[in-house]
Design goal:
single chain, mainly alpha, two-stranded parallel sheet
Length: 262
């Protein structure tokens, strides 16, 4: 476990430096990274957890002539040939589905301005059906009647169909399913759903990669709940360093000394 302040590329840089300090090789040893879709974090992965072309580590030089087999040309071809190590980025399922939920809620908020029956129904739409209370389930059944003709119902249907991607048995089936979903979603008349479909296409490889490894940040989210509980008990901490120390004590599995009492 490693903890450091921040949510950008510098956090990845700090992790890489810590791994080097423990005898690791961050640019060649990291095989997969499970993350959200933060551009700053992905930039850190590309800079500090991936092999860099030799030309980026040396002073730039003028090529000898066009088309010549210069040192500057070799690294570029190495990237194309896949010779340089790059960790596979897997986008966490929870964060991807959260973006779909944001699209549904955006449709609901806009529609609620003219459809008052949608007010105070946010969690009725965002919760899994198995987690709805009896009252919420009854209200959802009432709101999704065909006679209501709600845009929010259509948005929720697109969201639920997207979740079917994670239930496909193979990568090939999942990729074909997602292509069909994106084709339809980009042609619907719900702007937030269209924007979500475009976001999926922009992060295609990382979303599809989930089918191979099925990595998630679930373990870290569980650890975070323990840390937040400790933070509430302590009424907060004076500094980030103290907070990080508590994280290591709670979840770091440190070999603590035994205390013997008489």
């Amino acid at each position: 476990m490693f903890a450091t302040p921040g949510k950008d590329a510098d956090t990845v840089k700090a992790f890489a430096a810590d791994l080097v300090g423990h005898g690791g090789r961050p640019q060649t040893q990291v095989e997969r990274v499970c993350a959200d879709m933060s551009p700053a974090f992905l930039k850190g992965v590309n800079e500090y957890l991936s092999e860099q072309p030799a030309a980026q580590q040396q002073e730039p030089q003028e090529p000898e002539e066009a088309g010549a087999d210069t040192p500057e040309a070799k690294p570029a071809r190495a990237i194309v040939a896949g010779e340089l190590h790059r960790p596979q980025v897997v986008f966490d399922r929870f964060h991807v589905v959260a973006k779909a939920n944001e699209a549904v809620d955006e449709v609901r908020r806009a529609e609620a301005k003219t459809r008052p029956e949608l007010k105070r129904s946010r969690y009725t739409w965002l919760k899994n059906k198995s987690n709805l209370s009896a009252k919420q389930a009854e209200r959802l059944t009432w709101l999704t009647r065909p006679s209501m003709r709600l845009k929010t119902t259509r948005a929720a249907k697109w969201r639920d169909d997207f979740n079917g991607f994670y239930e496909q048995p193979t990568r090939q089936d999942a990729e074909a399913y997602l292509k069909r979903w994106c084709y339809g979603a980009k042609r619907c008349r719900l702007e937030p759903i269209k924007e979500f479909a475009q976001m999926v296409e922009a992060h295609w490889d990382g979303i599809i990669a989930w089918q191979e490894s099925q990595l998630s940040n679930g373990l870290l989210e569980g650890t975070n709940s323990l840390v937040q509980a400790a933070k509430r008990r302590a009424r907060g901490y004076r500094s980030k360093d103290k907070m990080i120390t508590i994280i290591y004590l709670i979840a770091g599995k440190l070999p603590l000394p035994e205390i013997h009492t008489i």
